[in-house]
Amino acid sequence: MDFFTNSNIIFYLLAYLVGSIPFGLILAKIFANVDIKSQGSNSIGATNVLRVVKQTNPSLAKKLGIATVILDAIKGLVIIALAMFLNAPSETLWAIAVLAVLGHCYSVYLGLEGGKGVATGLGVFLILIPIPTLIGAVVWIICAKVIKVSSLSSLFGLTAVVLSAILFNNGLEVGSNAPVYIIAFIIYYKHIPNIVRLIKKEEQKVI
């Protein structure tokens, strides 16, 4: 019984279950009546929402894409904010961050399938390591404007976050940069198909 009354366990379950909510899939289905899991890249993220919905409703596509980014980012952020409010230790906060990203990438509601984890990673990083995250966001925006390839821009932005975290926030108050590396590894791993397409010069641009 103590298992279910332990605050850390409750936070961990919430992080994974809330992180698993496929907002992109839900928004596209409700507002555009399309199933993004069966079209485009089959991902539940904002890029696929934008790409698929744009085929039938360009004006709506951008709005749903932005909404998906915001909601996916908020998923982990709100649980961490709640844990912070209740004075949870840094170790718990970072565990919540990892589980929220895992939930998005391997959603319990989608048979352990999911998105790439970029927006959810952005949300948890923003509240835990804001300065490195803002640097990564600037890198992402610049890359997105110049190369117009979502996956590559995201990977450059993520790399900037990791390098900036090492430079400006070594230790992360938990004695190790491991949580950042774990989250980055999950996101890099989910991008392997994109990396393969990039090597083959088959990755689509977002116009």
UniProtKB/TrEMBL annotation:
GO biological process terms on file: phospholipid biosynthetic process
Membrane topology per record: Multi-pass membrane protein
Reactions listed under catalytic activity: an acyl phosphate + sn-glycerol 3-phosphate = a 1-acyl-sn-glycero-3-phosphate + phosphate
Pfam families per UniProt: G3P_acyltransf
Biological pathway: Lipid metabolism; phospholipid metabolism
Regions that span the bilayer: 9-32, 64-86, 93-112, 118-142, 149-168, 180-199
Coiled-coil regions listed in the entry: none
Top-level EC class: transferase
Signal sequence, start to end: none
One CC-aspect GO term: plasma membrane
Record's keyword terms, sorted: Acyltransferase, Cell membrane, Lipid biosynthesis, Lipid metabolism, Membrane, Phospholipid biosynthesis, Phospholipid metabolism, Transferase, Transmembrane, Transmembrane helix
EC numbers: 2.3.1.275
GO MF entries: acyl-phosphate glycerol-3-phosphate acyltransferase activity
Subcellular location as annotated: Cell membrane
Function: Catalyzes the transfer of an acyl group from acyl-phosphate (acyl-PO(4)) to glycerol-3-phosphate (G3P) to form lysophosphatidic acid (LPA). This enzyme utilizes acyl-phosphate as fatty acyl donor, but not acyl-CoA or acyl-ACP.
Assembly and oligomerization: Probably interacts with PlsX.
Entry similarity comment: Belongs to the PlsY family.
Protein name as annotated: Glycerol-3-phosphate acyltransferase
Lineage, uppermost ranks: Bacteria, Pseudomonadati, Campylobacterota, Epsilonproteobacteria, Campylobacterales
Encoding gene per record: plsY
